[in-house]
């Protein structure tokens, strides 16, 4: 399979317009239903999890476990869920639940990254900043070919089967890239 190839001639303006419309609706819905403290439940969710412990490490661990259990649990129930409500509806439901939980976990981590126990301090070590940027760039290059077809999302185009039998793509691909079985 020829991964990570983008040909302008293969693109349909209608698909990209549909994608932009769906993305706008999803982001607006995410804001209203989850992010905005006045209307969303995200703040109440974080407050409920944070009420378990005063330790940011424990809260982050709980948020990560909640996300992992829900995300993996829903992935394991995909076949059954698709039979009950349909493929596209289940993919939208899956993303609609996973995205807010992932967002809450990431934002909590960012807001508390300097709290809690410090395991090491490498801010003053020469070259660490550059090494982190370089390693992130390399990881993006490994991730890009397997996942960067924006139209191949739950609500636009049905994800296709991507099988790479050898090499870095076999190691780095996300298990959900096998959705189109």
TrEMBL record:
GO terms for biological process: carotene biosynthetic process. Keywords: Membrane, Transmembrane, Transmembrane helix. GO terms for cellular component: chloroplast; membrane. Its main location: membrane. It is found in: Membrane. InterPro entries: NnrU_dom. The chain crosses the membrane at residues 16-35, 58-77, 89-111, 131-151. GO terms for molecular function: 9,15,9'-tri-cis-zeta-carotene isomerase activity. It is a multi-pass membrane protein. Residues 59-176 form the NnrU domain. This is NnrU domain-containing protein.
């Amino acid at each position: 399979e020829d991964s990570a190839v983008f040909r302008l001639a293969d693109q349909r303006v209608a698909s990209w317009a549909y994608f932009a419309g769906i993305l706008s609706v999803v982001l607006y819905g995410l804001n209203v239903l989850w992010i905005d403290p006045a209307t969303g439940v995200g703040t109440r969710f974080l407050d409920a999890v944070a009420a378990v412990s005063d330790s940011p490490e424990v809260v982050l661990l709980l948020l990560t476990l909640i996300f992992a259990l829900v995300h993996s649990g829903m992935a394991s129930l995909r076949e059954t869920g698709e039979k009950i409500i349909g493929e596209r509806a289940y993919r939208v439901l899956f993303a609609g639940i996973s995205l807010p939980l992932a967002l809450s976990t990431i934002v909590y981590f960012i807001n508390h990254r300097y709290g809690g126990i410090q395991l090491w301090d490498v801010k003053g070590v020469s070259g660490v900043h550059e090494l982190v940027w370089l390693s992130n760039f390399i990881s993006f290059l490994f991730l890009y070919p397997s996942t960067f077809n924006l139209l191949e999302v739950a609500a636009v185009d049905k994800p296709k089967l991507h099988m790479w039998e050898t090499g870095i793509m076999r190691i780095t691909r996300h298990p959900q890239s096998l959705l189109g079985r």
